[in-house]
Design a protein that fits this description.
Layout (H helix, E strand, L loop, with lengths): L9 E8 L1 E5 L5 E4 L1 H4 L3 H10 L17 H5 E11 L2 E10 L5 H16 L2 H5 L4 E4 L2 E6 L9 E2 H5 L3 H11 L7
């Protein structure tokens, strides 16, 4: 059965800078920015797939306070994506309907809280095995609140381009 456009869930992505630390087999630490982390995108994606938050259909949306935002947001799942040669932290959001600008700002604030003190605080403490004897720690919470961007803000996507992208991705929106 085909979903009518008015019934299709709205999707959005929030982007934030990532930093990390690479520990070699002798436990020497090298700080990494998004550009350096981009070489480990597949490894980090696999770690995120195994993370406990992916087990829940709602993901981080479970932790939203009661109110209009919680009523509109169906799911929130952390991910990573390489864009412009840099690895970004991404929050994939599925909504029942499009969020207002105020609700989008509230969602950014909620995502910042999860990165800094909630889910992200635990994720950065989980070593990601990446090479023999080496490990990586990825910090989603390194971004300041004002550095979180919607996909449109980050990539400069126009509204018409965005609708085309969402329509192409909609069959996969339910997949985390």
């Amino acid at each position: 059965m085909k979903i009518k456009e008015s019934e299709a869930p709205a999707g959005m992505r929030l982007y934030s800078p990532l930093v990390g630390a690479f520990y070699d087999s002798e436990d020497h630490c090298t700080s990494m920015d998004g550009y350096a982390l981009s070489g480990y995108d597949w490894t980090i994606k696999k770690a995120l797939e195994k993370d406990w938050i992916q087990e829940s259909r709602a993901g981080l949306a479970e932790y939203l306070d009661e109110g209009p935002l919680k009523e509109k947001v169906v799911s929130m799942h952390p991910a990573v994506e390489v864009w412009n040669y840099c690895l970004w932290g991404v929050l994939k959001v599925e909504c029942r309907e499009e969020l207002s600008p105020e609700e989008t700002e509230r969602l950014k604030s909620e995502w910042y809280g999860q990165m800094a003190d909630g889910w992200g605080e635990g994720f950065v403490q989980q070593d990601i095995e990446c090479e023999e004897g080496c490990r990586l720690c990825v910090d989603f919470g390194a971004a300041s609140r004002n550095r979180i961007r919607t996909e449109q803000e980050l990539k400069g996507i126009q509204a018409a381009d965005q609708n085309q992208t969402v329509e192409q991705e909609s069959p996969r929106m339910g997949m985390a």
